[in-house]
Structures are given as structure tokens and as C-alpha cells.
Records
---
Amino acid sequence: MANIADVAREAGVSRSTVSSVLTGKKFVRPETRERIEEAIARLQFSVNHGARALATSRTMIVGVVVQLHGGEFGPALAPFLVALSDSARSEGYDVLLVTEADQVGAIHRLALERRVDGVVLFNIVDEDPRLAALSDHDLPAVLLGMPADSQGLDAVDLDFAKAARALVRHLDERGHAEALFVRWAPEMFAQRNSFVLRFNDAALDEARRVGLRLRPIDCPADPERLPDALTGALAERGAATAVIVHNDAASALLPAALHEAGLQVPEDVSVVSIHSAELGRALALRFTSVETVPGEVSNAVIRTLMARIAAGHGGTQEDVRHELIAPRITDRGSVRDLT
Amino acid sequence: MANIADVAREAGVSRSTVSSVLTGKKFVRPETRERIEEAIARLQFSVNHGARALATSRTMIVGVVVQLHGGEFGPALAPFLVALSDSARSEGYDVLLVTEADQVGAIHRLALERRVDGVVLFNIVDEDPRLAALSDHDLPAVLLGMPADSQGLDAVDLDFAKAARALVRHLDERGHAEALFVRWAPEMFAQRNSFVLRFNDAALDEARRVGLRLRPIDCPADPERLPDALTGALAERGAATAVIVHNDAASALLPAALHEAGLQVPEDVSVVSIHSAELGRALALRFTSVETVPGEVSNAVIRTLMARIAAGHGGTQEDVRHELIAPRITDRGSVRDLT
DNA sequence: CTGAAAGCGCTTACAG
DNA sequence: CTGAAAGCGCTTACAG
């Protein structure tokens, strides 16, 4: 495989001149540049990435560090990985996928061995131990998720609180006075998943504010037990005329549960949901809903990370950036107007 | 950040001796080794990965190169990525996730810039252009998928043909004489996805062999149109007493479609399916089925790739390894015994 | 505008 | 068993 010395010899110039055309940081006389470019093409030369990384102290790689808690809905993950990869590539970066169970150890490894220029942390929980691990280093990082305390780190996420309020108001404005609130399993609350807590708190708060009765239904973590839990909740809905769902597994299983209970939407019961866009698409869910926006979130995450890398440092700053992406609600007519 | 020279100085030895303890390839006197290890701990030293990669010509990174055709079922992807990452880590490798649309360009880039020591190709189709791209280089590669012609490359996959035969026989042995075969969309066949073709061909062949009438139902690629297609097929099932499903989206939507059609399983109709394990778990699918085994497949893929990397070459070999993982059928009682 | 030299942080024969 | 030296393939001041 050709190296820069081969190219220099072939073009009759020095290695530094070749390097100048490779980096594009220095002006090179057109004739010379052309000779060099021909030599590069002839020899099928490409820059050795590792050597460049060593010389520049830039790996051009970002780590995507994914904590798998087990409680969350697996199918929702891939779209974010793909979107992050796409966003990173558009900035010239590759993505290192880091899913090992020992996330704290992984962060130390990435930082100490200088494997990446920055990291994205996925599946953020409140009191996430990964944030403390980061504070030992000077590694640029962005949280994909919004914990109560970001510990001075940049963070980006869909605005789950605003989404919750919008969905609650959507029901309220159509005359609904009582609704079931199908939530994630208690295990998810115990883990303090940031998006779970933020949606939950805002939904309850907004419901109180507008005077909607919200009856929380905690789902079992075990998918096997979910169908019965859903049909049970529907059967005992009492005065509730609507259901608001924040639990992807429940959103996926709700159509069957509604069938099972013999309920038509929106004639017998109204439904609003927030769920993975991919899930909604694959299962053709027809609920009025807020869907995740992996592309938008990933773009914002990578943009923020690029800025942090360019600034030449990670860690706690005064100029922390928190970005909450406004939710969009898609009206699919699954809410009956009772007014 | 400390480097190897700092450690050498701190321990009062030469850099090469430090390197010897780092690589573990040379014997170092216990006292010396201990002094060095103390120095390493004191200085919080870790090997700079890029420098080691340059010196050894080993990146300790494998590329996972994922073609997203769009037709396949998205939620099935993540478990494979995670499993590949886990398998690779257990061999000391990290995973670079490569999802860009221009997969051929990506392969050239990875090879020429020496970014990875090897690649795993995911979502293999017959006549996959990525295989030709690989032949331009000397990059170790393993296909996760089994095309009709692997062009001399190692390949690993679940044995979809055997799975098809097992499911067909499962119906036949229980006295079913006619079944609907809910298949992937024609678009998937046109793309020639390797697992789609292999399951399909084997299912039809085995059905012919045992004398089971199999009526292919082509699903629409658009999930929106899938529910109606399924209920329609069920309504017009005629003499068919069973359904065999190879289409994850259809497996996911079938429970609702069965409800819609007022059919009980297995009383009114029997069902067997092959689908993503993750999907089956998340949706608590209760069909007798073969499920994907991302962990097993990934282990085999990485093991094969490691052997290929150790051999010091990629490309076409005489010693090609093809590994088909035996399917396991889980009997969930969704097939009625008609004998 | 171009080149010679030093340096990035390691590993690895090769002497001793 | 340990060390001095060369080398991996780049980039980047610094001269000219």
C-alpha cells in the first residue's frame, strides 16, 4: 500500500508538499498540486488514518456509548444509532459503538486510550454514573437525554415535558375529563430514566392544571404480562373516556388489547400516545401521537458535540448547552370530540 | 496525559522495557515489572491507541457495515449491532458502525485508510455490490448472511432453509394439508435478500416434498396497508388450516388481524412463524416459532473474522468458511393437531 | 511556494 | 533480562 513518501517520489516533490495538498491547509502551486493529485490517483493512495490521528491528535471518531438497562423498548434503539452515524459522517466523523455493560469502565478506556474525540451518552438516567466518570477526563461529551442535573454537560433531547403537556391538553380541549395514563414499568421509574420522569411529571402537572383526572396505570416490565394488564385496565376504565400512553411496548400491544376488549377508537375510547417513530411506522399505529425524531435529535447532538470538540475541551463549563427539541403532535383522529 | 517515556523515567527503565510489560510479549524481571506497574498506576498511564495502531498495523477495530434497504423490518437491527459489539469486545476489538448509503464507497474508505482490521457485512443480498468492492482489497471480511454466491468470502447466518423445512414439517406432521405462506413484500424478493430467498425456496420445496399445499401471500411493503392485507388473506383462507409467516411486520400485526377476523389460535387457525427474537419478546408473540439468535450468530461471525484476521489476509481463499446455525423451534402450542 | 527536520507515542528487531 | 535505535505514516512549524 502506497504511503506519502511513494507519492512524493512519484510526483517529484517532498513529503510535506504532498501533505499540504492532503490537508488542504496550505496553498500549493496548481501545476504542482496537479502532479501530486495524479500521483495519488496512479498509486491509489489514501491517507493512513491511524498515522494522521497520531500526528494531529484527532481520531475523527465519536463514541456512542449506550447503556442497556433492559427495561426500555429495544426496537427503538436502532434508529438513533443509524441517525447518529449519519449525522457524524456528515461531519467527517465515524462512530464507535460502545454497548458494554461496564459503561463507566468503557468511558475511562475511551478517554485514557484516546480512542475517540468525543462521546455521545445514550439512555440517560438521573444520577447516571457515567457523568461522574466523564468528570475525571477532558473528553467532550453530549448527553442524548436530559437528566435533572446534567453536571455541567451539554445535553439534547426531545422535549418530553412539552409533549406530555400537549397531549394532555389535546384531550382536555376535546372535553375529556378523565383518562388512563399507561406508563412505563415501575422498574423504569426506579432507574430514573430521564425521559420517563420528565414525561410523567409534566403530564401529571398539566392534568392538574387543566383539571383532567389522570389515573396512572403501571405496566408490568414483563411483556408476557402486558396484554392482560392492558385489557384489565381498559375493562376497569370506569369514567375514563381516554387513554394516554407513554410506554412503547404498550403502544404496540394496545391495538390488540382494544380488539380484545371490543372497543372502537375513537367511538368507545380515545387514545393519544408518545412512541418511537420507527415502531409507529412498522406497526402502522393509528393514534394521535408525538413520535420520536431520531434524525433531528441526532443532528443537534452531533452539532453540539462538534462545537465542544472544536472548543478543545470537555468537562464542566459555564457555557453548557441544553437543547430541547419541540415535539410535533400528529392528529390521526383517535380522539373523540366530546364538547 | 502521560506517555511511555514518562513511565520509563518514573520507573527508571527504558521505554522498550515499559513496552514489554504493556504488550506482555517479553519476559520482564518481576521486580522491574512491579516498578513499572506502579509507575503506570501512579501516572494514570494508558497506551495511546492510535500510536499502538500505527506501530503494530492493527487498529483493533472491526467495521460493521450495514446496508439499509428500507424494506426490511427496522426493529430487528439493534440486537445484532449490540451482539456484534459484545462479541467483538470479548476479543478486545471495538466496533465501528458504518451505515452510510454509499456502502461501496464506505468499504473502499475503510480499506484504503486502514481504519479497521476487518469488516462484517450485514443485510446481504444476492449479487451484493459490496462483495465486489471487497475484492479490490485485502481486507478480512465475514458476511452476516448467506448469498447464493459468497464470492469466496466467509459467511455465517441462521439456517433459514432448515428453519423453513422444520416449520413446514411441524404443520405437516400435525395433519395440516394446506397453509397460507405470508411472505415478505415483493420488493424484498426483488432485492434478493439472502434470508428471504433461502427461507422461501426451502419452504416451497419442503411443502412439495411432504405434500402440503402452500399458498404464498405477498405482503405490501407499506405497513399501513399490511393490516388489511392480513385480514383479507385470513378471510379468504379457504381450505387452509394454518399460516406460516416469514415477515416480521406481519408477525407483529397478525395478533390484531386474527382478532379482527374473529379467529382463535389454534382452534380456528394454526400459526407458525419465524421472526426476530427481540420482536417476539417485546410483543409477547405466542406463536410456535423459530426466532433469530443474534448472540449466536454474532459470536460465530466474530470468531470467523478473528481467524481471518489472524491468518493475515482477506479476499478470496480456498479455505472459505460457511457456517449455518441450526434453528431451534419453540413450541408455543399455536398449531392444532388435526391427526 | 517548497523542503528538511522534528515529532506524534508507540513496538520491535537487534545488541549486549 | 534490559536498552539504544529505527521505524510505523503522517503533520507542522521553521527556513529558505
---
Amino acid sequence: MFSKACEYGIRATIYISLQSMQDKRQSLKDIAQHIDSPVAFTAKILQQLVKHNIINSVQGATGGFEIEKQKIKEIKLQQIVKAIDGSSIYMGCGLGLSECSEKNPCPVHYKFKAVREKLRMMLEETSLYELVERLESGLTFLKI
Amino acid sequence: MFSKACEYGIRATIYISLQSMQDKRQSLKDIAQHIDSPVAFTAKILQQLVKHNIINSVQGATGGFEIEKQKIKEIKLQQIVKAIDGSSIYMGCGLGLSECSEKNPCPVHYKFKAVREKLRMMLEETSLYELVERLESGLTFLKI
DNA sequence: TATATATAGGATAAATTTGTCCGATTTATA
DNA sequence: TATAAATCGGACAAATTTATCCTATATATA
């Protein structure tokens, strides 16, 4: 559904949020280790997220990645997905036809419409806070 | 959402069905031209679909691809997707965690569950016939 | 039976995604 | 101020997906 980069990006952002709730800044190494992702590749993805103003980075010794508590409540899954994979997953045509539209629908257009709409709504409505909350209370798990 | 191969596969199967409704067998060239896909790559995909018993191929002069009318009513989108992309799109974890399950859910598990379920149901319920019907009547379009 | 027109399938190439490496820069602290 | 630990960013490499090419095989028909 999402690219590997996007999966890592979401996992990383959730983990950074979890730590930021306790005012703990995390280094790239820590993050990659906890979300089980390749370190250098994760670095690239975190850079993208910093550029898109989703997480903050602090350089130098004791530096790392963090996210403001206020932002944890504001940032939605959709913003992470859009920053890494773009919005074609919930905007584009299911058959990859560039000319497909409401006025000129492809054969699966209306079939996919409801699914894409549900996905879009879910991504737009789900905040980091919501995800972190249930992770903190042990209802969900980020890594085995 | 789907791979390019899967997009071409669905488009090709719909086009073959459309022609088979009028007992017209189509050559690879015809198909690729009408669905706007690379010829040789499309050949590989059609071979996969033949192997998965979704379409039939006839070799030799006047040969080509076709699909039995009865099958047009039976084959569901899900079978095409499964043959080419596998079922991870509506079965796997949204974050790519292999250990994610109902008992051990990832942070987005329940959020994705409804979306994946809707996608799965749609793919399992949508028959080729349904798609071809609306294409025949000009309500939808396969290519601009 | 020769020919032209198909699919089948293996080898290869191009493009994209995923992943690594390393030097430059930043910054806390001994 | 020297050092160590961190991010930044560019170049490169591996893996996967997408796409091409060519030969073998099948088959309708002149």
C-alpha cells in the first residue's frame, strides 16, 4: 500500500512522538534500532520529514530528533504520507489512467471511489497523538 | 496502490472481456495499443494471467487472447490482483510489520482495518462483467 | 508444404526504489 | 580549545520493478 520509505517514516514519527511526550530527544541510531529500519536509509527519510516541518532536528552532540507536544496533536497521518509518497494513493486513478475523472471515469472509478475516500478520511483524521496514546497504554505495539 | 503490472493486467483483462463479449479474440498488439501499455511487458503479464487461468491464449496465426463469457461473470477483480500483486495489499500490515496481528496490533492496525476490509470486499465482489457492462454502455472509459 | 502471424519464454537492459558510505558541519562538554 | 557525538548532504551500490529483444514454437491459410 505504502512504500517502504513511507512505512519507515510513519513508524519513526510515531516513535519520536512517543519519546517527545516524555521530553526525550532521540538520535537516528536509537530510532532505527527501535523501529527496526536501516540506519542510513532512515536518515534520508527523517531529513524529508524535517524539511516538511513534521519533526524537528537538533544538530551536534546530544542532538537528535524530536517533535513539539502541540504538534503531536496537530499532525495527521496524511501529512506524513503526503511528504513521502505524495497523494496519488488516495487521489490518483486505480488503473493509473491520467485522464480518469468524475466526468470521464475509468471502469473501476466508482468502485474505488469509496475505498479511496475512506482511506483519505482515515489519514486526514488520524492524529499522531491518537496513535501514541494507545501505544503508551500498551494497547498497540510498534515492534516485537 | 497497485503495481504498474497490476494496473496493466486489470486494464488488459477488461479489454479482452469487452471483445470476448462479441466473440472477438484479440492479439497482444491490439490489446497493448488499446490499453496504452508497453507491448512486451504486457505479454509477460498476460502470460501470468493465462497461467492463473483467468484468460485463455490461442497460439498461431489468428491466435490471441480471449475469455469465456461464463468466466466474465465469474472472475472477480480480486483474482487478477492476487495473481499479479499478491494479497498483501488487503491482508498485510499497513506499517509493514510482519508480527502485526489482531492479538498484537501495530499503532495503525485498527485504523487501517476498516479501509483494508472495504478494499478486500470491493475486490472480491466486483466481477469483470459488471465493469464491462458499464464500459459497453459508454458510462465508463478505458482509454482517452 | 511454405509462409505469415501469433504466443511462449529466456536473456538482457533501463528505471526506480531501497540501502550504504563518507566527508562536512554543528554543538555539548571535558 | 580539543574531542566526541550528532545531523546534513552528496555520491554510490544493490535490489526490485518495469520494459525490451530475440529465438522457439504453434497454427491458419494460400
---
Amino acid sequence: MSKGQATRERILDRAVDLVAAAGLEGLSLGDLAKATRLSKSGLFAHFDSKQDLQLQVLETARAHFIETVVSPALRQPRGELRVRALFENWLAWEQAREKGGCPFVPASHELDDRPGRLRDALVAVQRDWIDTLAMAARIAVEEGHFRSGLDARQLAFDVYGLFLAFHFYHRLLRDPEAAGRAIDGFERLLAACR
Amino acid sequence: MSKGQATRERILDRAVDLVAAAGLEGLSLGDLAKATRLSKSGLFAHFDSKQDLQLQVLETARAHFIETVVSPALRQPRGELRVRALFENWLAWEQAREKGGCPFVPASHELDDRPGRLRDALVAVQRDWIDTLAMAARIAVEEGHFRSGLDARQLAFDVYGLFLAFHFYHRLLRDPEAAGRAIDGFERLLAACR
DNA sequence: GACAAGAACGACCGGTCGTGCTATTTTTTT
DNA sequence: AAAAAAATAGCACGACCGGTCGTTCTTGTC
């Protein structure tokens, strides 16, 4: 790998953290340059525009998410275990990044009223993730772990709600019971699926 | 009421809409001046600083929220009906503001890592609201509508999750079924409380 | 060792931000 | 109607924004 390529990856990894903390708009070239100990222009030479940078940050975050949340869960056996793994890895993903948390959550609220390529890219990522959740639930029905007739997309909605509530209680309210509450809610949800 | 007072309230009302759309940081004095047809300096004379403006915007939003969500629900009879009213008014509050949605949701994500008076004020508002939800649930236990031993604060957590999922599906994904999903989830939640 | 390509630099552009100071207009009080 | 007070406008500031420029340092190839 060329040196430029390596630097660009270093920039993007650092940028994902900054986005998780301050959002996609809060990410400024100056801050990112300081964080990577590059000059602003030296950094900017790696990207066509700020939007290009933001798109690449989104793509980098997506790759991280798939690597640490989705892929390990897909190695679990089909059915309830896999659904559990998806949710638990998701919570861990949010907690692991000590400084920022999940970068998609702030991005979702910044972009929900701003049409454009950035928003389209984010929506695509989120739809994929919801599809993954729903598909895992549907497989659990096939396996006989969940009752037939279960609305898998409704389950995905409910689970997403638990994650967002966790994010909110954890990051804004600093509630130490946030994770416990999310897990309790998830168990109650699963019990209703059987 | 003096004219200045009236203008200030007009500014704050308009500012709440802009915050709902663009967040507390996205609110700029220039934009707000244009929206209220004042000069930037003429507008600024009403406030000590931008932070002062933001604090007053938060307080204005809080007053609106209590007026349109909490107070009408407290006029409902104690018990399940009141819990229902709180949730339904909450959903309606989010949908009523055609341009912006709930101003507290974007603010929560902007401020979750920024200590200061703004964050403290927002946390206080949110804690009050969660207490209101939990208290209504506890009353429903007293009235015999909900089973005894119910964890009222867990219910508040779950309900908050449903609202956030609704907000996310509605505003980012533009899912027309968002409200239906939230209501379905709420009904399932209530059924488990009885 | 020459030389081109890649990578990073510092200076700078026009624009917008929050914020102060001063003048002018409008409202209120006498 | 005059004087006092309040409300608004005009203007300029320093800081920072995304982005461009020409230059320099590094790297690898012939």
C-alpha cells in the first residue's frame, strides 16, 4: 500500500471518531488536520471536496460496523442466537468507542432534513441494517425459534427503538442502568416472539 | 406587554422551528434575523449572547411541550388513559411541526458530549419528562390498571425507545408506516403491563 | 545520480460566524 | 409636544470556515 493510501486511511479512521462525537457537520477540516497532525491543505489533498470526505467517512464507518457487528453475528447459528448476537454486538459497538459512540446516530439527525448524496448514502446504510435485523428474525421463524406469523419488520422497529433509547440514556443522561434497561427490554421482546 | 417583549417572543417562537430543523448549533443569528425580518444586530440586542438565546429557546420549547403534550394529558383521568394520552400527544407533537419535528431530539445528540449550561438545561427537561411518564405509569398501578410490581421507569425507557424509533423511521427513512409501528409497539407494551 | 511523481506544507482567498459600538428611529412617559 | 427610554439598524472586528495556490520535501525508477 502506498504511503498516501495509508495516510488517507488514518485520516478516515480518525474522522469516524470525530463524527461520532460532533456529527458530520461538526467535522471541520481544521480539527481533523490537528487530530492527524497534518496541515489542512495536506489533508485536503486526499479528497475532492468536503462532501467527498464525508461520504468516505460514512463508507469507512459502514465497513467498521459490518466488521465488528454484522459479520461476527452471521457466524452464529441461524435463529434466535443470531438475533441476540446482532443486538448485543450493536450495544457493544456503541459502548466500545469510548469517546464518540455510534457515528450513525448523530448523522441521522443532522441529515434527516438535508436532501443530497450524503443523506442518500446514510439512508441506504440504515435500510441495509434494518433488513439484516428483519432477515435474522425471519430466519428465526423458519427455524421454529420464533412463532410463525411474527412481523419481523416490527421486531426490527422495536429493537431499533431499544438501541436509540439506550443511546439517549447512556450518552445524554449518563444513566448507568441504560445498558441493563436495553437488555431487559430486549428479553421481554424476545419472550413475546416465542 | 412592551413591544420589545413581543418581538422577543416572536423571535423565540421562530427559533424553536429552526432548531427543530437544524439543531441548536445549526441555528445562526443571520438565518434567524432573516426569518424574523430583523437586522442581525437588532435581533442580537434582545439577548446577552448566543448561549443566552439558546437557553431561552430551550425554555420556550419546554413551555410549548408542556402546553401541548403534558397539560392536556394531565386532564385525563388517572391511570392507563393518562399514559395513553401522554404517548399519543407526544407523537402528535412530533408530527404537528410540519417542518421541524421535535426540537429536543436533535439537541440531545448535539449536546451529549458538550458539557455546559445548555446541556444541563436539556438534561433537566428530559429528566422531568421521563419522571412524568414514569409517574403516570405508577399511578396506573395504583389505580389497578397495570399489574403491581411493574417497573415504571423501565416502561418509560421502552416508551422513549418507541418514540425515538418513530422519529428515526419518520424523519430519516420517510417510512409512512412509522406511526403505525410506534402505536403497535405501544399497544404491545401496554398489554404486557396489565 | 537524474528526474518525475507523490505527498505535505504555509500562505492566502472570499465568505460567514458571533459580538461589540454607535447612530437612528420608534415607542413610551411626562 | 418635548423629553426620556426602548428598539432597531449600520458597521466593523477577529476568528474560523471550506477551498486554492505555488512550493518544498520525500520516494522510487531508470
---
Amino acid sequence: MVTLFDVARLAGVSTATVSRVVHGQDRVREATRTRVQQAIEELGYVPDGAAQSLSRRRKDVIGMVCVEREVEPQDIENVGLLYYDEVLRGVEARIRNHNLLLLITFMQAEGVGTPDFRRLDSMSGKVDGILIGEGFVASHYIERLAARVPVVVIAGTPGERAADVVAADNFSGSAAIITHLIADHGKRRLFHVDGPPDSPDAIQRRLALEHVLRGHPQCQLIGSTQGIFSVRSGEQAGEELLARHRGALPEAVVCANDQMAIGVMAALQQAGLGVPGDVAVTGFDDVPVARHLHPPLTTIRQPMQELGAMAFDVLYSRISTGKGESDVMLPVQLIIRESCGCTSAPAQDGK
Amino acid sequence: MVTLFDVARLAGVSTATVSRVVHGQDRVREATRTRVQQAIEELGYVPDGAAQSLSRRRKDVIGMVCVEREVEPQDIENVGLLYYDEVLRGVEARIRNHNLLLLITFMQAEGVGTPDFRRLDSMSGKVDGILIGEGFVASHYIERLAARVPVVVIAGTPGERAADVVAADNFSGSAAIITHLIADHGKRRLFHVDGPPDSPDAIQRRLALEHVLRGHPQCQLIGSTQGIFSVRSGEQAGEELLARHRGALPEAVVCANDQMAIGVMAALQQAGLGVPGDVAVTGFDDVPVARHLHPPLTTIRQPMQELGAMAFDVLYSRISTGKGESDVMLPVQLIIRESCGCTSAPAQDGK
DNA sequence: CTGAAAGCGCTAACAA
DNA sequence: TTGTTAGCGCTTTCAG
């Protein structure tokens, strides 16, 4: 391995000088600089990250934990992936600008057992701060991490003790889409495909549903079922709905996310039902494929990239200044397409 | 920051002993061990990764470079994401078993300019080995990295000088799907939506197309256009096709990947054409949503997770033993659904 | 403008 | 079984 020392010897200077030219900060005589640079080039020298981190007391690496709910590892459906993709993009964009690197790890939501635990600890020793990709990691867990490095939870429940939280305004979004169904389409009989009970996002969305229904006594929730945010679980929800309410179908199925909406639509169409003709369906998130579905999915756009970017900003500010904003909420947007019963997508769609 | 030394002092032992109990390898008297563990617990000690790496001369981190082609940063369509998701899963599964961590970075394919270059260098100083997520990074680039750590290229062109290459059998897959179109559906007039010119995958797939056509003189390629593997570029390809061949449509559109097939189908359907009624369409990759499209997409399944897993295995073997397999090719599978004109999906579909 | 030298926190001989 | 100690490669005062 080529070290600073090797370069220094070849260039006939001290390691301090080499370090200076590598970082371009301090003033070094032009002649010396070029000589050193030649040596660096010739040797193909690249500084050792571990040594730098140790010496600088700073890793220049941010950790991101992506929590997965998947139970059946063989299931082809990708659960939270589309979600993380987008969040990740937002984070990455920022990371790049700050010349940091991203250390990433996936974790099972359940089985918060020893192995995953140890992985997180190990991560916490290699990064300057940690982003938790979804807010349903146990608080004591978070506290343990936060004892070592700053932690920001994305899509978590505001009020986390040891960490900052950045989330989208799920409540308003959910209320908006349900109100659209009721007020603009006159839907009365609703069916709800809920998300996992421990998901802060799902909780807010459900609360909004209940809130809106309370304001519209003429409407009723004819049934509901719980999924795990995956396409497959949406399909199952659709089948269950069919089995239970074949005789008197709901007028609209409100899904807690797009993936499940995809599954529900598939199940409905499989059974020969038309969407939105026979039953309207709505999602939440506006994943990239939502607009390409048949019919295009009416949903709520979460600013997922912004979520990632904002989470990073908060984390970075904690890291560098020690200060941050403990609870940030980002606005969402109703995206009207056709699965709700609207006939053509208004300009809101964005393109 | 809590250090080994702090723990040692609190427990009344030397740092070496603490190190021993942290790693559980060496023999330590039971009483001492518990005393040390209590101290660790009390202080919330977690070893510093940088110091460990420096001392052990090993980072326990694998780097992964995801190359993106995206030109317009504002474009909502996610280009290679679905692809990387799957590959990443394969890699992650292995990483996890080996108790390593994953350092990940995204890079623009174009603009192989200074900024990205520096990011890669910086990564190479923080990892034990690097996985390049797609094979169209310039060779001299790869060589530079490979001078420091082992490098494995996923979906690259076999024969890379400085690195090992792991790829799917694109040629056979492409040949199989086109042959299906010609032999089983009697398609004669084909249109090709090609991938980026510098993509090894796209090159193999195109070569297979030419190869098959050569064997079927009665068939003709009525036109072709080049996309960048994104949904948007597929849409544009579809529009272009429509503009150029409205009068005499092709019988089938062969797309170099699923994303573009999605775009093509959207454009065709937008124009009132039926798929596969008026025009058959095929993809390549079998991304998770392929089966949920309308019609379900006939495509080639690349074993993407296996690609990632295999790439990791090769890399790991290079890292630990210095030996590896320089060119590995994984088999692919024809997935017949409905977009090719078949009426129902045979059992091949997998579920 | 450049060099010498003291660590950063941990590991791993080697001694005891 | 436990302690001592010499680094790992780099940054950063502090002198010169």
C-alpha cells in the first residue's frame, strides 16, 4: 500500500508537506507542490480513509438504515423499495454536494434481535450521523444510537426523544384524497386497506380517514383490512374484500399506499371488475409507476426526495453545529388521475 | 467519546483485556470478563471504526458504485433504480452474512469529470473492495481503482483487464425472446428500441437481434431507435415509431429493457393502439412491476439478485484469498406473459 | 514555506 | 490469564 510516507520520500519532503498539497489548503511553494504532485501521480497514492478519519476525528460518512417489513424472503414483490429509492436520491444529492459518502444497511423490522443490533452498533462506529429510513424502529434502539452520533428519523412519529424527526404531512394528504372521493365523486361506501399497525405513516393516514368520516355521517366504512405496504398484501386485501363484500361492493377502496393499491386493482380486475367503473381505488405516495398504471392511479404525492434531502440537512446541521430542528413536516400534494373516477388528469400531474 | 481506555480504567484492567472481551476470541477469566462487560455497558462503549480499520488493516466495508445515465435531473422517472434495487438486495444479503457494511455512491455516466472521480478515489480509501454496478465505466477508471482494491464489474463486458466481470447471458436471452416472437407468433416486421450505445448489456442484446434476423431472412427490421433505458426514453421511442411508421406499423417492438417497454406501451396505447392486438411489445429484465402491467409484459428474467450475490462472492474471494473468477456468466429465463401475443401466462411465470 | 513530532483509538505480538 | 508496547497512516500544532 502506498502511504504518505512513500510519497514524501520520493518527493524529498516531509509527510506534513505532502499532506498539505493533498489538501490544497496551506501554502506550499509552487515548485514543491508540483514535485509532490508528480510523486503522488507516479505512485498512484490515495489517502487511507481510516487513518484520515482517526486523525481528523471525523468519518465523512453518513449512515442510512433502511428498515424492511418483508417476512417472506422469497417474495418477489419489493416492499418499501420504491419508497427508499426516492428518499435515497434526495439524500444522495445532498451527500454528494458535501463530499460525504453513504453507508447503508437494510434491517428487518421484526426480529430486532442481536444480529441486526450488532450491525447497527458497528455502523455507529463508522459514521458521523445516522438516518433512519422509517419511523418504526423502537425508541430505545434509537436512543442507544443517538448516544454515539446524531440520529434523524424519516417518516417517524414527531416527538422522538433522542432524535430529530422529518415527516410528510400524511394526515392532510389522507384527508384530502378521501374528501375528494366523498365530495367530488359522491362516494358513500368506503373500504380501507390499512398499513402496518406500527407504521407512523399508516397511523396518520388512518386517523385522517376517521376524521373525515366523522365529518360526513352519510358515509360509511363498510370494512377494512390490514396490509404490509406490499403489492402482494394489497392483492390479498382485494381478494378478501371480494370474498366479504361480493354482494354489495364498496364504491371506493382507500389504500394506505400505492403498492397496495396496485395489488387491489389487480385483484379487482382479475375478478372482472372495472376500476374506477365499478370501484374507485386510491393510493398514497405517488411512486413513479403510479401514472403508468391502468387506470392511472389517483394518489397523494409525498415529496420523497425532499424528505431525504431535508432529513440530511437536519442531520448535517446537528453534526456540524450541534443544533437541528427536532420536528419537521413537509407538505404533500393531491395527484388526481383516473382511478378515482375523474376522466382526465388535470394539470396538477406535473407533466 | 468513550474509548477503550475509558472502559479499561473503569474496569481496572488493561486495554488489551478490554479488546479481548470485546472480541470474545481470546481467553479471559470469567470474573474479569463480566467486570469489563459491565463497564462497557455502563459507558455505552462502541469501538471506533476508523481506529479498528487502521489497526487491523481492513475496513470491513464494501463499496458499490451505481452508475446512472440520467441526464435531466428533474426527470421524475427513475432510470436504473429498479435494476439496482434487485442487485443491491443480492449484495446486501451476502454482506450481511459476512458482517460487512456497504458504502454506496451514485455516479453520472457522462461527465466522468473531476468531481465524481474524486468521490471514487475517496471511496477506494475507505473500503476493502469495490463493486461497479454496471459495466460502462471507462477501463482506465477501473484500472485506477483496481490498483488500490479488488474490483468486480457487474453487467460488464467480459475481458476487463484489471477487474473481474459478472454478467447475465444477455445474448441468449435476447435471442430467445426474439425467436419466440418470430417462430411462435409469426412476427415479420420488427422494430427495435435499443439501449445506450455504451452499455455492454445493450450491445449483447442488439447483437443477438442481428444474429436472429440473419437466421430468418423473411423477417425485417423496419426501424430502430436508441433510448437510455428510462421509461421516458421509451415513450419517446414509441412516439417516434408512430411518427415514422404510422402507415405500416411493425408487428412487434423489441425493447432493450422493461422500462423502455413500459414507455413504448404507454405511447402506443395513448395513440389508441392495442398491445398486443395491434403491436406486440417485449422487454428485458423482468423488473417487479412487469407482471402488473397491462398487458403483463413478456420479458427475459435476469437473475438480478444472483448477479449481485455472485459479484459479491467473487469480490470477497479476491479480498480474502487474492483469487477470483475473472468472467462469470449467469443464465437468464424467458418469461412469457401477454404483451407478446400469448393469451395466458404459462407456468414459467413462477407464481 | 517546511519539518519534527505528538497523538487519534485500537490491535496484536511479546512478555510476564 | 493479563499487561506492555509498538505501530497502523494521517493531521496538525509548534518550531524553525
